[in-house]
Amino acid sequence: MACKSTDRAGMLLPYATCTNSPGSFSCRCTAGYRGDGFTCADVDECSLATQCHSNALCINLPGSYNCTCQVGYSGDGVIQCKDMNECLVDSGGCRNKALCVNNQGSFSCLCQSGFILVNRTLCQDIDECNEQNNLCRVNEECKNVDGSFECPCRVGYYRPASNMDCVDMDECKDNACHVNATCLNTIGSHTCTCKRGFSANGTQCDDINECSAEDTCHPRALCTNFIGFFFCSCQQGFKGDGFSCQDVDECSLSVTICPSFSKCINSPGCVCDLGYVGDGLACSDIDECQRENICPQNKTECINIPGSFSCVCKKGYNLNGTLCLGKTNTHTLFTLIMDCPLKCPPSLSTHLPPQIVVSLRGVSTQWATICAYVSAASRVTGRTALVSINYSLFYVHCTSWFFCPNKLTPL
């Protein structure tokens, strides 16, 4: 029979070799297989004695086997499998403060104290303040930090020494409030309250203008605002503390400003004299000449005087009694300044020194004559009168009613 590698069913046997001999042949399984040549089964070399390196993996193959170094090692798998240091490349993939530690055939990521390993490569901070209770002492607060925790004093407390407990801090010693506020220290804190006369939150205090509010003082009082306070003072003619003001009855006083032949009538506070307008504290003259037809004669013109007015002849006319007649030379007006030590009583010259003579542009007249014209003037208001002496016009200003003049001043 010729040597032909077939199986008994006439099929080719790929794992056997045929050896021809005279008149016969023989079949032998190839390396890696075992059997009688007609039947060959794979030999599992990995189950036999050690074929690979101790740090290699044996993989059986049909008719053979393969040695591959395990993960973490490098080499041919048979003679050499050397440890591979994974930490040399990108720290082995360890992240966020993780430390790469090389092992035989492997590596590991280790975390420092205060961290926990996540996904075998990532270190995550442990929040000790949430994980545990009562880590800090009284008046301290737990504060988490990377890998640990701290116990600083709470707000409003301080530690006198590193080994001492936290004690209350007196913030008022450091002028924590506004200069116009009162500081009150409390346990762990403080309060700021604006002083009287100021308003705001205590760290800022603004002056209160009490005078801007109604009824702060009496209606007959003046309100004066100051920084932090105010003052009420009664108006002239009233007395009191400013919160309560009563009218002063000047007529009941032993000394009044009214002469013996006039009557004193008390009024609330101060009132302006006739011919003036105002609140009594400030009076301004009324200009009567602004009114229509105040002087009815067309030969007269209105001259306003303090507290009153006068209708005088126009330029070129002469006063005759109460009428302005004819055209004469222009008259010169004089002002008599009343400064006088003596009054002009209704009896006129009884108490006057007749020897004193005043010259009015060559016209001589005595005190009695002047006082006569003053007291007989048809318009005497306030302390001013318009008088005519020898057809000359004069304004008489008295510092008191009907005082005699001792000085003449031309207008």
From TrEMBL:
This is EGF-like domain-containing protein. It is found in: Membrane. It holds the Pfam family EGF_CA. Its main location: membrane. It is a single-pass type I membrane protein. Residues 42-82, 83-124, 125-163, 168-206, 207-244, 247-284, 285-325 form the EGF-like domain. Keywords: Calcium, Disulfide bond, EGF-like domain, Glycoprotein, Membrane, Repeat, Signal, Transmembrane, Transmembrane helix. InterPro entries: EGF (IPR000742), EGF-like_Ca-bd_dom (IPR001881), EGF-type_Asp/Asn_hydroxyl_site (IPR000152), EGF_Ca-bd_CS (IPR018097), Growth_fac_rcpt_cys_sf (IPR009030), NELL2-like_EGF (IPR024731), Nephronectin_domain (IPR052235), NOTCH1_EGF-like (IPR049883). One of its GO terms (molecular function) is calcium ion binding. It comes from Cyclopterus lumpus (Lumpsucker). It comes from the Eukaryota. SMART domains: EGF, EGF_CA.
